[in-house]
Amino acid sequence: MGILSLITGWPGSSGFGSSSTAEQVTDSIDASDLTIIITGGASGIGLETTRVLAMRGAHVIIAARNTKAANQAKQAILEHHEHAKIDVLELDLSSLKSVKAFADTFKALNLPLNILINNAGVMFCPYQLSQDGIEMQFATNHLGHFHLTNLLLDKMKETSATTGKEGRIVNLSSVAHLYTYEEGIKFDKINDKDSYSDKKTYGQSKLGNILHANELSRRLKKEGANITVNSVHPGLIMTDLMRHSLLLMRILKLFSYILWKNVPQGAATSCYVAVHPGLKGVSGKYFLDCNEYPASNFATDPELAKKLWDYSHNLVNTLEQSYF
Question: What is the tens place of the pLDDT at every residue in 186-237?
């Protein structure tokens, strides 16, 4: 896969390419025995991912900060797919308390969990701290998903063990992981306001998504768990995620319009990696346009992945202890 494939939409070895849609990559797939959590599943490519996977029969739980909007999205889907199984639960990824509350609520439903799609995120926002006092892009895009995944992991292991079905975790990253700080992750200056760059901090958080997926994949392989973990770049799509840099994105799109996708195309890689049978056993990989693609040197550094894991684990523990 390269720039020519991106421009032409020619398929790669998977049979799909940049012009493939979420419906096309899931065609003929029966997901009726799957329960799937999608963070940010009420807008943008998350909503399209919810719609298509629900259309394929999956029971989809939308994890959303704005539950009113999420329920409206649910009703819009039900108008066209009356038998869709969709539930909405509140989740604010920038708050570890909210993440814990979401996980507890979901577990209390006594549902299985086959697939977790870590889709939600914020992008290029002005400097601000989360409720927990962590820079907002790192808190929402990486740390919240890191904590959520760990809290749901035992449920996924239990589900895969009892059903015999492979569990899958999908982290939405971005090609923006290439544009980060000189050291990759600013471990000692996560909250530093003076050196803050909204673009590099976004890239840092997207790098974190890949490193998280790779390290978790390594750990699960080591213990023999039947769960895969991969990361994806959805493509360039104009969604509400870009609200903090709308003018810049519109100018960029004007000069690179041929590289941009629509929402159905943007959701394709997430859906492909989440449910396509051709990826059985594939883990610790980065996907672009529904095909495996090489990530950056930082993203494929196992020592950096382990360092971020340990840093994130210690940070979550410290923040949780401060609640009591």
Answer: 999 999 999 999 999 999 999 999 999 999 999 999 999 999 999 999 987 6
Write out the E strands in the chain. 35-39, 59-64, 85-90, 115-118, 167-172, 227-233, 236-237, 260-261, 286-288, 291-292
Question: Bridge partners of 89?
Answer: 63
Residues with a known catalytic role? 196
One DSSP character per residue, 117-145 reads EE-----SPPS-B-TTSSBHHIIIIIIHH
The three-class DSSP label of residue 39 is: strand
In this structure, are residues 304 and 180 in contact, taking their beta carbons and an 8 Å threshold? no
Selection from 120, 21, 138 nearest residue 70 by Cα: 120
Helix (H, G, I), strand (E, B) or coil at 12: coil
129, β-bridge pairs: 135
Q: How many residues does the chain have?
A: 324
DSSP string for 205-229: HHHHHHHHHHHHHHHHHHHT-SEEE
Whether 201 and 299 have beta carbons less than 8 Å apart is answered as no
Written as six digits, the tokens of 59 are 């029971």
Q: In angstroms, rounded to a whole number, what is the distance separating the alpha carbons of residues 287 and 295? A: 9
Kindly report, residue by residue over 244-269, the tens digit of the pLDDT: 445 544 544 444 444 569 999 999 99
Using an 8 Å Cβ cutoff, are 170 and 231 in contact?
A: yes
Give the Å distances, CA to CA, from 44 to 202, 248, 270, 281.
18, 19, 13, 29
What does the longest C-alpha to C-alpha distance in the chain come to?
56
The angle formed by the CA atoms of residues 119, 266 and 45, to the nearest 5 degrees, is 45
